[in-house]
Design a protein that fits this description.
Largest sheet: 4 strands, antiparallel
Number of domains: 1
Radius of gyration: 18 Å
Structural class: mainly beta
Oligomer: single chain
Low-confidence stretches: none
Amino acid sequence: MLYIAGDQARELWAIPVNGGDEHRVKGMPSLTLDAAWTPRHNGIYFVNGDPGRYSLFYYELATRSVHRVTQLTDRLVHPGITVSPDGHQLLYAGIESSESDLVLVDGFH
């Protein structure tokens, strides 16, 4: 079982399926996007980096090593990614721009 723990660090932790103590996944860096990761058969794909400079990485469980797969576009990456079963396609939501309006409503009660 995998989950994000910690207020600042956003670390990935694991709990053995048959019970036991939880532990930090060794070799996995702290994440900047707490929900931009997805487990696969032999590892974990995750997005990390600074806004505008995100990259897709792969954490290999057997070697406990991280490999950069590709740099993503300059969009803001919305948390939540998925990888196709064959590992050849990535689906993620990107935000090109974020805008808002400030509106004053007269007579609102």
